[in-house]
Write a structure and sequence with these properties.
The structure holds 2 protein chains of 2 kinds.
Chain A: H1 4-23
Chain B: E1 10-12, E2 18-23, E3 26-32, E4 48-51, E5 54-66, E6 69-78, E7 83-89, E8 92-99, E9 116-119, E10 122-141, E11 150-157, E12 162-169, E13 175-182, E14 210-213, E15 220-223, E16 231-233, E17 240-242, E18 250-252, E19 270-273, E20 276-287, E21 292-300, E22 304-311, E23 314-320, E24 326-328, E25 331-333, E26 339-357, E27 366-374, E28 377-383, E29 390-398, H1 400-407, H2 425-454, E30 458-468, H3 479-489, E31 491-492, E32 496-498, E33 503-511, E34 516-526, E35 532-546, E36 549-555, E37 557-565, E38 568-578, E39 584-593, H4 598-627
Antiparallel strand pairs in B: 1-2, 1-10, 2-3, 4-5, 5-6, 5-10, 6-7, 7-8, 8-13, 9-10, 10-11, 11-12, 12-13, 14-15, 16-17, 16-26, 17-18, 19-20, 20-21, 20-26, 21-22, 22-23, 23-29, 24-25, 25-26, 26-27, 27-28, 28-29, 30-39, 31-38, 32-38, 33-37, 33-39, 34-35, 34-38, 35-36
Helix pairs in contact in B: 2-4
Classes of the chains: A mainly alpha, B mainly beta.
Chain lengths: 49, 637
């Protein structure tokens, strides 16, 4: 088999795309800031496109 | 003596060497034919073969010489009642037949190598023009050919591989012969002569050589391709001897430096390359003013001569090209469609010689070389000053380990640098990896299209709100009072339901801003778990003119998308701020569910392209290194 490393990496990348599209993930807006209880305004600007 | 052929007019008696010629109805004796010099050819009178489906038999031969060498012309009778010539030189053959020409043939004085000429309704390129001399003959021939008979001759090649010879006998009108090049295998020879030193039938004389004495120092000089080589170098004194002439005269004086030549492949070493056994018979070194390289001459009685050229540990296996490539702009093309790009032109000089050669080589011999490359192949044209001949050769890169294994070399010298026809090791990797990457990228695109079609963004809730600039508290107001006032300005939306599985949520803000801004710090809060997704969104729009040119920036709408929000009941808290110029302004907030992040797809594309991109860069670096040594160093493949 030619390029086994590339095959593994590309398969993993496509698997990631399937999961990310199915779950609505996006690594560029991670990490999420979780807080317990309703808080006041706390915009970090991280969510801006 | 029975006359060997009904169509021959000249014959040599095999027993007494008498030359007889048929004149009118009588036979006349012309004298005695000179003895043919011994040679390594496997052909003999009586050898049969097949050419283009027609059987033939060799019935006579002529040994002819020219200024730079000699070759053998075999006269053959064909089964379809034709008679033609099969020329044997340097291991390749031409088959040609007399051809009537409706138009007068060009005078020999009007011909020059490289010139286009039209013969028998076909275009040819003149390959060489030379004066040839009959050395000796045997068997039956179509004309009287006593030794010393001289004539002019011009060989011509057509683009399609057709071959023509213009023959200019003294006192007779010129004759045209047309035909084609042929290989030993293509002529399907049988009834061959065993070759001493090579053939299994005469295995006891394997490696047999013929020696002559050096006229300069008297040392024995072995000949390994007798009858085919024209010059041999005395390994003792370095004198170059004319081996075409039985007198074996010195054609270049002795050179002591010959003793210091240390060939990588010793003279007389045999090795099997590409399925054929070759013997190394000569070595010459050339210099082009910048680089010096070595050329090893290989010989096989059935295949003829080949070259192994080596430079800085790289090797190429070179064969004579039996066609004239078609010139293109900066390139040449072979009949089989292969295109070669011009690499370099250089004047070269032979700086040392050892062994024997099929032309009268001398130290100091100059030639003009043009190299064209299509790795792993190299095409070279060689032109010698004062000689009306352009020689083309085709070479292929050979791995040093292959040469070392073939000739039993101790350890191959590690190649340095990039050689002109060295295969790019990254090219094949690039091609296969790029194909694989294209397949994966197409798959990723299909996945993205599939998910886009089933993950449509849909509105969940929307609200219309108003911003009101708060009144600044008087100086000295307690901090607790200020905080309570801020909390009172926070807008909390009604609870709404996010359904389905984990999906992105988009918060969109719309306000009629013009050269101002309005922003919201928001928090998407799960009413059941109090999980918070905070963020900020700002609508801003500016326009104006700059140096008379109108410009705009921003928009009245802005949105942010929160990834992977689980289903549940949610509400939004909004804390609004605005440009100090704004005292009050209505705005809309919309919540949408679903959709895809394009950045995921772009990330996967980048990962898929990274590997091929790296190999592509390495491939280009290799090509840049290759072309850095060329006449076209600024460009690359």
């Amino acid at each position: 088999m030619k390029h086994p490393l590339y095959l593994a990496l590309a398969t993993a990348a496509c698997a990631y795309l399937v999961l990310a599209d199915a779950r609505g993930w996006n690594p560029f807006t991670m990490p999420r800031f979780l807080r317990s209880g309703p808080g006041g305004p706390g915009g970090s600007g991280l969510y801006h496109k | 003596m029975p006359f060997p052929s009904s169509i021959a007019v000249f014959a040599v008696c095999a027993h007494c060497q008498s030359m007889v010629v048929v004149r009118d109805a009588s036979v006349e004796r012309l004298g005695e034919m000179a003895a043919l010099p011994p040679d390594q050819s496997p052909l003999q009178c009586g050898t049969r073969g097949v050419w283009q489906g027609v059987a033939f038999e060799l019935i006579g031969r002529l040994r002819v010489e020219w200024e730079g060498g000699s070759w053998t012309e075999w006269w053959a009778e064909f089964a379809d009642a034709r008679a033609g010539w099969i020329a044997e030189t340097q291991g390749f053959f031409t088959v040609s037949f007399p051809q009537e020409s409706a138009k007068p043939l060009p005078a020999v004085e009007d011909l020059a190598a490289g010139q286009m000429v039209r013969l028998a309704e076909r275009n040819y390129t003149v390959a060489d023009v030379k004066s040839v001399n009959c050395l000796a003959g045997e068997g039956a021939l179509p004309f009287a050919a006593p030794p010393g008979l001289t004539r002019q001759s011009a060989d011509c090649l057509a683009d399609d591989g057709a071959f023509a010879t213009l023959d200019y006998p003294l006192g007779d009108p010129p004759r045209l012969f047309t035909g084609a090049y042929a290989t030993f295998a293509a002529l399907q020879f049988s009834n061959l002569r065993p070759v001493p030193g090579w053939d299994g039938e005469v295995a006891e004389t394997r490696h047999a050589t013929v020696a002559l004495n050096c006229p300069a120092c008297g040392a024995a000089v072995e000949l390994r391709a007798r009858g085919l080589t024209m010059a041999a170098v005395c390994g003792s004194c370095g004198g170059v001897i004319d081996t075409a002439n039985p007198k074996a005269q010195l054609i270049q004086k002795a050179d002591e430096k010959v003793r210091h030549i240390r060939p990588l492949i010793e003279i007389g070493t045999r090795g099997r390359l590409f399925g054929v056994e070759y013997e190394m018979i000569g070595l010459l070194t050339r210099f082009d003013g910048a680089a010096k390289w070595s050329e090893y001459l290989l010989f096989n009685p059935w295949q003829g001569f080949r070259w192994l050229v080596t430079y800085r540990g790289h090797w190429s296996f070179i064969d004579r090209l039996l066609e004239i490539p078609r010139p293109l702009a900066g390139r040449v093309r072979l009949r089989d469609g292969r295109v070669f790009r011009h690499f370099a032109a250089a004047g070269t000089e032979v700086v040392s010689v050892l062994g024997e050669f099929f032309w009268k080589v001398q130290r100091g011999e100059r030639s003009h070389l043009n190299d064209f490359v299509a790795p792993p192949f190299v095409l070279s044209s060689e032109q010698y000053p004062g000689l009306e001949e352009i020689t083309w050769s085709l070479g292929e890169y050979v791995e040093p380990a292959v040469v070392a294994a073939a000739f039993g070399l101790p350890k191959p010298i590690a190649p340095t640098g990039v050689y002109l026809n060295q295969p790019n090791p990254h090219s094949e990797r690039w091609r296969s990896l790029w194909r694989l990457a294209c397949a994966f990228m197409s798959g990723a695109l299909l996945l993205q299209i599939l998910f886009a079609s089933i993950s449509n963004e849909r509105p969940v809730t929307a609200g219309h709100y108003a911003y009101q600039r708060p009144v600044e508290p008087p100086v000295g107001t307690p901090a607790e009072t200020t905080a309570a006032s801020d909390a009172a300005r926070t807008i909390v939306t009604p609870v709404f339901q996010l359904t389905g599985h984990s999906q992105p949520v988009t918060i969109a803000l719309r306000a009629a801003v013009w050269n101002t801004w309005l922003g919201c710090d928001f928090a998407l809060v799960n009413a059941a778990t109090n999980q918070v997704f905070p963020g900020a969104v700002t609508a801003e729009f500016y326009e104006g003119t700059d140096d008379g040119e109108a410009w705009t920036e921003g928009a009245e709408t802005a949105e942010v998308r929160i990834p992977a929000v689980p289903p549940g009941r949610y509400y939004l808290t909004l804390d609004t701020e605005a440009d100090p110029k704004i005292a009050a302004m209505p705005f809309d907030v919309q919540v949408r569910r679903g959709g895809l992040f394009m950045s995921n797809f772009l990330l996967v594309l980048a990962i898929l392209a990274a590997g091929p991109a790296w190999v592509f860069i390495r491939r280009q670096m290799f090509e840049n290194a290759r072309w850095a040594d060329s006449d076209h160093a600024a460009s690359s493949e």
